């Protein structure tokens, strides 16, 4: 069983507003990500800064960030708890600003996992994408210990402590992990979707 979360807590200052609701091809950015990921997982939720009525249109549970945290690592804390409570074998994390995610993302990440693998990270053009990953739900305790032991509160810092696998994806003709952080990125995604 695969649980999934969309990391939807980004403020989107560089792109002009609340990132999940920035319009792309006439729909919120988050709608594109949910559409691509929902068929690939058994349960899906949104990791958010705080509950927001605008998310209700997606019909998904909202997992609020822990009070003393922000950013993708806060979403991972909530997501691991969600996956463990769901009895899932894996937790998939994806960002809200990657609307071109592959339709076979979960299958290829799972195929890259060995029995000892604790997390599998997507990679394209030699670059890792730490917010696009599968995690074992039992890592919740390890993550809590990591947060207690270090001030470096980043997903990369946590991944450095794990037995990792990587799944490689082609970046041509389009990188499926294109992150939309600026108006130029948004224009590039519009061009891809229109073609």
Report on this structure.
- With 195 residues, the chain is an alpha/beta fold.
- The chain has helices at residues 29-37, 72-86, 105-111, 140-149, 155-159, 183-194, and strands at 2-7, 23-24, 27-28, 43-48, 62-64, 90-95, 119-124, 127-135, 164-169.
- Strands 5-4-1-6-8-7-9 form a 7-stranded mixed beta sheet, sandwiched between helices. It has a two-stranded antiparallel ribbon with strand order 2-3.
- Strand 2 (23-24) and strand 3 form a beta hairpin.
- InterPro entries: MobA-like_NTP_Trfase (IPR025877), Molybde_CF_guanTrfase (IPR013482), Nucleotide-diphossugar_trans (IPR029044).
- Belongs to the MobA family.
- It is found in: Cytoplasm.
- Keywords: Cytoplasm, GTP-binding, Magnesium, Metal-binding, Molybdenum cofactor biosynthesis, Nucleotide-binding, Nucleotidyltransferase, Transferase.
**Could you say how many structural domains there are in total?**
1
CATH topology: Spore Coat Polysaccharide Biosynthesis Protein SpsA, Chain A
Tell me the span between the first and last alpha carbons. Answer: 35 Å
- Give the radius of gyration: 16 Å
Unreliable residue runs: none
- Tell me the helix content: 25-40%
Percentage beta strand: 15-25%
Main sheet specs: 7 strands, mixed
The assigned CATH architecture is: Alpha-Beta Complex
Number of helical runs? 6
CATH superfamily, called what?
A: Spore Coat Polysaccharide Biosynthesis Protein SpsA, Chain A
The averaged pLDDT comes out at 89
What is the general shape? globular
Number of strands: 9
Question: Which class best fits the helix and strand makeup?
Answer: alpha/beta
Function: Transfers a GMP moiety from GTP to Mo-molybdopterin (Mo-MPT) cofactor (Moco or molybdenum cofactor) to form Mo-molybdopterin guanine dinucleotide (Mo-MGD) cofactor.
Pfam families: NTP_transf_3
Binding site for Mg(2+): 97
Domain MobA-like NTP transferase: 4-157
């Amino acid at each position: 069983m695969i649980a999934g979360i969309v990391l939807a807590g980004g403020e989107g200052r560089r792109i002009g507003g609340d990132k999940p609701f920035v319009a792309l091809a006439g729909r919120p950015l988050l709608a594109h990500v949910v559409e691509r990921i929902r068929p690939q997982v058994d349960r899906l939720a949104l990791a958010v800064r705080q509950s927001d009525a605008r998310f209700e249109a997606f019909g998904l549970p909202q997992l609020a960030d822990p009070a003393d945290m922000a950013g993708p690592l806060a979403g991972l804390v909530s997501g691991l708890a969600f996956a463990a409570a769901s009895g899932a074998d894996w937790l998939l994390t994806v960002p809200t600003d990657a609307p071109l995610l592959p339709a076979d993302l979960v299958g290829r990440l799972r195929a890259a996992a060995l029995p000892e693998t604790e997390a599998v990270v997507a990679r394209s053009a030699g670059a890792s994408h730490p917010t696009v990953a599968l995690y074992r739900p039992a890592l919740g305790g390890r993550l809590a210990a990591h947060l207690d032991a270090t001030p470096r509160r980043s997903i990369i810092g946590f991944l450095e402590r794990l037995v990792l696998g990587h799944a490689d994806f082609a970046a041509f003709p389009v990188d499926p992990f294109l992150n939309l952080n600026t108006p130029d990125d948004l224009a590039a995604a519009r061009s891809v979707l229109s073609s």
